[in-house]
Amino acid sequence: MGKVLMVQGTSSGAGKSLTVMALCRHFKRKGLKVAPFKSQNMSLNSAVSIEGGEMARSQYVQAIACEEAPSVKMNPILLKPEVNGSQVIILGRAYNHVGAKEYMESKKQELLSVAIDSLKSLVNSHDLVVIEGAGSPVEINLKMRDIVNMRIAQMMNAPVILITDIERGGAFAQIVGTMELFDKFEKKMVIGYMFNKFRGDKSLLGDYPEMVAKRYDMKFFGTMPYINHRLPEEDSLIDRNTRGKGDLTVNILKLPHFSNFDDFDPLLWNTKASFIESGVLNGDIVVIPGTKMTIEDLKWMKSNGLDKEIKKARERGAYIVGICGGYQILGRTLYDPTTRQKVEGLGLLPNSTTFKTEKVVANLEGHERFSKKNLKIAGYEIHHGISHCVDAHPFAQIESVNGKPVDYSDGFINERIFGTYFHGLFQNFDFTEEFLNIVRRSKGMKEKKAKRVSLIHEIDTFTDVFESNIDLKVIEEKL
Q1: pTM of the prediction?
Q2: Are 392 and 470 part of one and the same domain?
Q3: Lower CB density within 10 Å: C or N end of the chain?
Q4: Helices first, then strands: H and E counts in the chain
């Protein structure tokens, strides 16, 4: 049976996900078989596991750091926020839709056994499992129903590392406040703490970090500097005021239920891309992204005039792209038989979408048809709607689903407009480079090479800094 180590934060956004990722990579480098785990995650930024199930993007990236196949066991419970409550995903499959109070009062305890079974399975097959907590472990109104922080640590006898975001201010108070709200047994489980996202001269901290550590008979592991990285973040905390740099302008609609926003990281790296929620669309490229609530977000677009802006953009020659829910929105009609809602789409593509109870979740491989080069592309799909086209000019030909050979078409092309169910499309850098150069050629601009970013390289770069600033030998001694 393997060992366990847990990372908890003094707040949401403290940096738990990337700290777990760096710890996973560090111990993998030391030759251990490592796996990440988070019993429950709330995120609209999901991925597809090796089993063909849905899991949080953060555990997916952590699995890559471990050089392990991403599994739903690493994130057995995923909550995807909706208009009223959340969709509950259990072991990769849609389970139910629940309100916050219902989930807190009746659902969490019955899911605890699912989480523990998954965690024990990972522990039995790995040398080390690095567990990530959620939010703060001392929300005293929630602790009695905890299935993700100290209850997991206690059940697995896991040593706990506390992490706090010093950039936000009040870091000492957050550590002290957290420790004071722990009970006596919980305090003993905390082996130490670290500061994260520090900007400035570490000498200004003086001896105070060690003084706080001594007060609670734990260790101070060090201070992680702020890093401008290109690793996926949790969607609830992303700064969507981010603007890329480049010669092309890209407008990405900032939908209320925007999901899988990291689809567009390559556009931020290669163009003057920005997130837009109102006003004039002046981009050379306009993107409608994926959304958890397609019909609601379409209504929102119509209420603030973005539907008209997209049509104006088309008239002036902009390229229009729809990914997943965005593809559905570009079509003629969207129908939800559960609510009997039927709404008109933008009508820029001939597809019509009907929503189904069962969710389509799969890893995809195939070839695109937009660039005329028939480039190989890989990605994944996560959606409820099934889209049908009356014409036949598909965006891509799918040749593999979850590793099994298939042969069917995806999406639709209408001149400078295309829609597709391919999440992760722009992570295919050959396609991204050719697509951006198609746009440049249409404007009489010079072609450019696309900036390509390797996920494993970014993981290694972050881990190098982590290993240089955090006392990992002391952590290893505590395992």
Answers
A1: 0.90
A2: no
A3: N
A4: 15, 24
- Domain residues for the domain of 354 are 239-452
b/e sequence 12-43, b meaning 16+ C-beta within 10 Å: ebbbbbbbbbbbbbbbbeeeeebbbbbbbbbb
Structure tokens belonging to residue 249: 């302008």
| pLDDT at residue number 236 | 46
Same domain, 215 and 357: no
Helices (H), 147-281: 150-156, 171-181, 184-189, 208-215, 265-270
Query: Do residue 246 and residue 273 come from a single domain?
Result: yes
Quote the pLDDT of residue 45: 83
Asked whether residue 42 falls in the same domain as residue 143, the answer is: yes
> 284 and 151 in one domain?
no
Q: How far apart are CA 256 and CA 83, in angstroms?
A: 10
Taking residue 296's Cβ as centre, other Cβ atoms within 10 Å add up to 17
Same domain, 437 and 466: no
Structure-token match 């990281």, residue found: 265
Domains contained in the chain, number: 2
Mean pLDDT for back-to-back runs of 10 residues, the chain (479 residues) = 96 94 98 97 89 94 97 94 80 76 63 93 98 94 88 96 94 97 96 95 93 97 93 59 84 93 93 93 97 94 96 97 97 93 95 90 96 96 85 90 94 96 96 98 97 94 97 93
Catalytic sites, residue numbers: 324, 423
pLDDT at 84: 72
Helices (H), 429-471: 429-442, 455-469
Please tell me the predicted confidence (pLDDT) of residue 81: 79
Kindly report the CATH number assigned to the domain that includes residue 253: 3.40.50.880
Q: Where are the beta strands (DSSP E) in 255-403?
A: 272-276, 285-288, 319-323, 333-336, 341-344, 351-368, 376-389, 396-401
Who contacts 357 (Cβ-Cβ below 8 Å, separation ≥6)? 338, 384
Q: What is the pLDDT of residue 243?
A: 73
Same domain, 137 and 170: yes
Give the domain CATH number at 167.
Answer: 3.40.50.300
Q: Same structural domain for residues 225 and 328?
A: no
